[in-house]
Amino acid sequence: MDDAQLDAMFDAAVAQARPGEEKRAVCVGMQGLADSAVTDAPPRIVQRLSEGVRLPAVPASQCQADVHPFVMATKANAILYTVKVESRDARGVLTFVAMATFGNLGAKGMQFRLVREQGRWTPRHTGKTIYS
């Protein structure tokens, strides 16, 4: 995946839910097609999300969840943004889930297809929405 694809995918994750007032940090993870678990997002993405939501951001490996996600080092209440690549078709179109997890029983996500339109990568909702 290139930088523009990752940017579009994580923009879709942030669009699921913005951090509420009680959130003091952001955790950022991803799961590629060949990955068996969530891994850390690239540092550039972590920094970009930090700037975009105006909160400190850390890779997902530095976070843990209990009642809500939190940064292990500071115990700061956080929101976890993840993208998970589910498939790639013969034309190279990715299907992925963009998720915002803000509590043990609080998550919102949507499934998208990442398509190239007018020179830009655009997430197109497939109709599948995930709530917890």
Whole-number count of domains: 1
- General shape: globular
Which stretches of 5+ consecutive residues score pLDDT under 50?
none
* Span of the ends, CA to CA: 28 Å
Major sheet characteristics:
7 strands, mixed
Explained architecture:
- The strands form 2 sheets. Strands 1, 2, 3, 6, 7, 8 and 9 form a 7-stranded mixed β-sheet that branches.
- The relative contact order is 0.22.
- The protein is of the alpha+beta class.
- The chain is globular and about 45 Å long.
- It has 2 helices and 9 strands; from the N terminus they run αββαβββββββ.
- The chain has helices at residues 3-16, 43-53; strands spanning 25-31, 39-40, 57-59, 63-65, 69-71, 78-88, 94-103, 106-117, 120-131.
- It has one domain (3-131).
- The mean pLDDT is 93.
- A hairpin with a 7-residue loop joins β1 and β2 (39-40).
Provide a concise account of the structure shown.
With 132 residues, the protein is an alpha+beta fold. 19% of the residues lie in helices and 48% in strands.
Using brief descriptors, characterize the structure shown.
globular, 9 strands, two-stranded antiparallel sheet, alpha+beta, 132 residues
